[in-house]
Structures are given as C-alpha cells and as structure tokens.
Automatic annotation (TrEMBL):
Organism of provenance: Mesorhizobium metallidurans STM 2683
Protein name as annotated: Tryptophan synthase beta chain-like PALP domain-containing protein
UniProt xrefs under PANTHER family: 1-AMINOCYCLOPROPANE-1-CARBOXYLATE DEAMINASE-RELATED
Pfam families: PALP (PF00291)
Boundaries of every Tryptophan synthase beta chain-like PALP domain copy: 59-159
Keyword Cytoplasm: no
Lineage: Bacteria, Pseudomonadati, Pseudomonadota, Alphaproteobacteria, Hyphomicrobiales
UniProt-annotated stretches for the region Disordered: 1-28
Similarity remark: Belongs to the ACC deaminase/D-cysteine desulfhydrase family.
Any GO MF annotation of the entry: D-cysteine desulfhydrase activity
Length: 169
C-alpha cells in the first residue's frame, strides 16, 4: 500500500515530523475530561432510582480543549493527525457546511504546520448575506485554511466537491 492509500482524507508528499506510528495519538485536551451532573434527570427519576444512583454524570466534550469548544470533533483529530504525519501527509482535506464546527477544528491543523483544504457547502438555507463570511468559516480562514465555497445541498455519501479537492491537492 502506497503513502496515503486507504486514507482518502489525506494528501501525500512533504514529511512533517518523524514517524510516530498510526497507533499514536495527539493530545489535544488542554483541560482534561470534565463531567457535569444531570440534575433535572436525577430529580425526574428520583423515585425510580431511589437508593440505586445518586447522580448521573454527563461527559462534557464541549469543554475539553482550548480550541474553541472542539468537543468530539477534536478527539477524532487526535487519531487522524498522527496517522497523517506517519504517512508523510502535508494536507488535510475535509467537507462540511459553511458554519461547520468540524471544518473549523480541522483548520486548526495549521497549528502543527499542516495545510488544510476545507470544502464548505451550503447545506442549510440562509438569508443572511454575510453568512459565508463570519463565524466558523471566518475562523477557518484566520487559522490559515484554504476555503472553497460550493453551492451544493446536503447529501449522504462521497461528495463530488470533496473528490475534486482531493484530486487537485
């Protein structure tokens, strides 16, 4: 299997770091794992769970990093980025809505020197004329990502716009 094969989200070429192995992870959790108690659920089910459970904790992925509330999207990158580095990958390519949290977090790959190409599609109708220039897409551009706006609606499956971006990288 050649470099990047079997990993369609990766582009090949420049080496970024020593081979870290695909089983390695990148630690992105600045504050550790936090939990919150679900008080309303506890009050609602108090009689049903009397004596069995005191609190019901919820894992707060939205508070796990210093990267603007990356949550579970950031956790995925803890595995993808070391795999990309081990494969001599220089660019991450992904697709999402114009205001996607996922694409904003992928743009943070610039922090470790990777290039990032974001295919931003219009999955949600919007009337605001600045919708594609503010919020997450603005942050992605500020982080150094190349952003391609594509006027396609939402669909499940491999996107033509994404395949085109992969081909061009």
């Amino acid at each position: 299997m050649g470099q990047g094969e079997g990993r369609p989200w990766l582009s090949r070429n420049a080496s970024l770091a020593p081979d870290s192995g695909s089983s390695q992870t990148l630690s992105s959790s600045a504050y550790g794992t936090s939990f919150a108690s679900l008080f309303q659920l506890n009050d609602h089910r108090r009689r049903e769970y009397a004596g069995k459970i005191r609190t019901l904790p919820a894992h707060r992925e939205d508070c796990n990093s210093g990267l603007a509330f990356g949550g579970n999207k950031l956790r995925k990158l803890e595995y993808i980025i070391p795999d990309a580095i081990a494969s001599d990958t220089d660019t991450l390519v992904t697709v999402g809505d114009v205001q996607s949290n996922h694409t904003r977090i992928v743009a943070a790959a610039a922090k470790i020197g990777m290039k990032c190409l974001l295919v931003q599609e219009s999955w949600v109708p919007h009337e605001d004329v600045v919708y594609d220039r503010v919020g997450n897409i603005l942050l992605s551009r500020t982080l150094g990502a190349e952003v391609r706006l594509v006027d396609e609606g939402f669909d499940i499956g491999i996107r033509r716009s994404w395949e085109k971006a992969l081909y061009e990288v």
